[in-house]
Amino acid sequence: MAGALIGERLPRRAGAGGAFGVVLLTLFIVLSGSLSCSSQHALTPIALVPGHPASVDLDGDGQGEEVLVDAGTGGLTILDKSMTYHARSKWRVAQALIDDTDRNGFPEVVALLDATDGRHLGLFEYFGGRYCERLVTAVLSPRPLSLETANGTTGGGRVLVLTEEASSGGATRSARTTYRWNGFGFTAVSGAGARVFGEQDT
To answer: How many CA atoms lie within 13 A of 176 on its CB side?
Structure first.
């Protein structure tokens, strides 16, 4: 009898387990879909070459926006269907690339910007329903000579690597510093730098 009772319960448990399995499978599919939606924004960094537009989906609508650095003025323009964004004329792009350094799942334009007061770092992206300067720092010192991005060694996500001017014993040399997004700007996590920058330039 006990065996019969256990035998009767087994199908019920199997049914419950099956239903639980279906729930798990459904969750897996949903999560996989979410991950695939996020991963569609992952990309190999794209270097912006002045005078040559790049097509990248900056706002996550599945259609590429045209991003262009003007070969003459160094100005930055983003074309999104009927919408056009121009960075302020005070900024001249010294170097720019497209990647996701602020770790929000969407690519942005990361640029070294020259102005009359010196060199700045800027992030231009689709944020809060519009294209804007997500961040433009105050003048950076030591002065960045070039930028690149890389996979972070801890915590995942992309990091920013700047080659910066540095002085040692009166001789000028360059040094590389790695920065990680901290929610409002970037914090040095390795290299010569030991600072946080994120002050919005006005």
So the answer is: 8
How much is the pLDDT for 166?
74
pTM for the full predicted model: 0.74
Distance CA 186, CA 152 (A): 13
- Cα torsion angle, 162, 165, 166, 169, sign: positive
Most confident stretch, 15-29, 32-46, 119-133, 157-171: 119-133
Picking from 183, 120, 191, 113, the residue whose alpha carbon sits closest to that of residue 150 is 191
Locate tokens 């010192």: which residue? 141
Distance CA 117, CA 76 (A): 19
Residues sharing a CB contact under 8 Å with residue 56, sequence separation 6 or more, in sequence order: 43, 46, 64, 65, 67, 98, 107
- pLDDT value at position 193? 54
Instruction: Tell me which residue has tokens 């915590």.
Output: 155
Distances (CA, A) of 48 to 94, 145, 146: 10, 16, 13
- 128: left (phi > 0), else alpha (psi -120 to 50), else beta? left
